[in-house]
Amino acid sequence: MRVTKIACIGAGYVGGPTMSVIAQKNPHIQVTVVDLNKARIDSWNAHDLNEIPIYEPGLAEVVGEARGRNLFFSTDVDGAIREADLIFISVNTPTKTYGKGKGQAADLKFIELCARQIADVAQSNKIIVEKSTIPVRTAATIKNILDNTGQGVQFQVLSNPEFLAEGTAIQDLHHPDRILIGGEDPEAIAALKAVYEAWVPSERIITTNLWSSELSKLVANAFLAQRVSSINSISELCEVTGANVEEVAHAIGQDSRIGSKFLKASVGFGGSCFQKDLLNLVYIARSYNLHEVANYWEQVILLNDHQKIRFAEKIINSMYNTVNGKKIAFMGWAFKKNTNDTRESAAIYVADHLLEEQAQLTVYDPKVSAIQMYKDLDALGNRSPEENRALLKVVNDPMEAAKDAHGLAILTEWDEFKSLDWMQIKTVMKKPAFIFDGRKLLDAEEMKALGFIYYAIGEKH
Ligand code: UDX
Ligand code: ADP
């Protein structure tokens, strides 16, 4: 079977970039990305490629190449389903905020709605591919809905999790470490494999059974997050003993069995995946009564929460135990550099903690909008929207953020922060001028020589 028409339901961080690259590399396949959110689809269709809804280095070029040729963005979900031979489901699977599994389990209502809609509309055989991160055995649910509510057509369900990281999405999609396809039907697997073989060497395409594929996605993220929590736990120990966490990370990372990646101590991991997938893993383990397994992975999240609060407390304690009415500049709001995504960003929680202490925050982030920052804070529900706007200001210029600030905190490792005029920043800040480097981005000796009181994660002060 040869795929000629692909539909993707969900034009978000996963669906948008992934389909753009699939279309770029398969000019003979028509790829239609659909979403219920009209505003989102309109921005994917924006004439000015700077206005597409997701910022990813290289993405605008890929969209520019394929859009209108064989890549289309539309709100006609039914139409796209009807035409496609292969349908990716890339809708969001947030952590449940209600009922059983609240705060832990993945909310599968969007997945179920998609499955029902596909069953309702499809008039020819189709391959359905789970792209969204989902709990193990979701494929069975999808298959069940399709087979019981469909109109007698054949559905093959595959799992094909996405491993791209934000900020490097296009690079990751162009040169994936591996593509994982889980499924039972050899023909369906071969059809999807052929789509990727347009640019990925076959030996990098791993095929497994459905459940292994679904579980591998959760486990990959859990392992990566666990490395960050492991090094963050050591950062606290370094701060009291005089060891330097960067030196420790380098020394252990040289052991090829450990490896050097994901050992950068930070103010805490964020992003849409790590916490959600860990919670999900914990929930699944508990639902099988595997409490030791659940507790083990839960600790990765608890340590991450501790790291964020510890950083905020360090700011308060260093600034003479009060930040009430003091201006603190925030450099960065995104959960990591080179993205405008703020989901679960450590900055939100550090800000919230400082605002509880009545600090006055002024935030500069090169890519995140003020609207998004207020949305993030309002969503916590700890203060009224008016209070959040009174206590937190958003500016477009780092120097303005620093002006008259008692302290400056680095929350995101944007490259441009390294080359700021730190001498000038020192001049415009109140004295003593504190820097709290949550990303270990700056050079400690240089900052101290400029006269800052400089604190970095994982270094004795
Ligand atoms: C992650 C996985 O890497 C990706 O494979 C999966 O598909 C989705 O989840 P992403 O969330 O985009 O990707 O970002 P990632 O680069 O993994 O970083 C996650 C968080 O960990 C960020 O907040 C980052 O700043 C933090 N981090 C990462 C560290 O604090 N230290 C590190 O060494 C690495
Ligand atoms: P992810 O990071 O997993 O891509 P996003 O939230 O960025 O998640 O994107 C998911 C997208 O899926 C959203 O734009 C949302 O509007 C869309 N979506 C959710 N349910 C449906 C549905 N039933 N039909 C079409 N689009 C949907």
In short:
By secondary structure, the chain is an alpha/beta fold. It is built from 18 helices and 14 strands.
What do you see in this structure?
This protein is of the alpha/beta class and 461 residues long. Helices cover 44% and strands 13% of the residues. A 6-stranded parallel sheet has the order 3-2-1-4-5-6, with helices on both faces. Strands 11-10-9-12-13-14 form a 6-stranded parallel sheet. Helix 17 links the parallel strand 12 and strand 13. Helix 5 (109-121) packs parallel to helix 6, helix 9 (210-241) crosses helix 11 and helix 12 (291-318) crosses helix 13 (346-356). The protein is globular. It starts with a strand and ends in a 5-residue tail after the last strand. The model has no long low-confidence stretch (mean pLDDT 96).
Unreliable stretches covering 5 or more consecutive residues? none
Number of strands: 14
Any idea what the radius of gyration is? 23 Å
Helix content: 40-55%
Task: Please outline the helices and strands.
Layout: E1 5-9, H1 15-25, E2 30-34, H2 38-44, H3 59-66, E3 71-74, H4 77-83, E4 86-89, H5 109-121, E5 126-130, H6 138-149, E6 155-159, H7 169-174, E7 179-182, H8 186-196, E8 205-208, H9 210-241, H10 245-253, H11 274-287, H12 291-318, E9 327-331, H13 346-356, E10 360-364, H14 370-380, H15 385-391, E11 392-394, H16 398-402, E12 407-410, H17 422-428, E13 434-437, H18 444-449, E14 453-456
Parallel strand pairs: 1-2, 1-4, 2-3, 4-5, 5-6, 7-8, 9-10, 9-12, 10-11, 12-13, 13-14
The structure holds uridine-5'-diphosphate-xylopyranose and adenosine-5'-diphosphate.
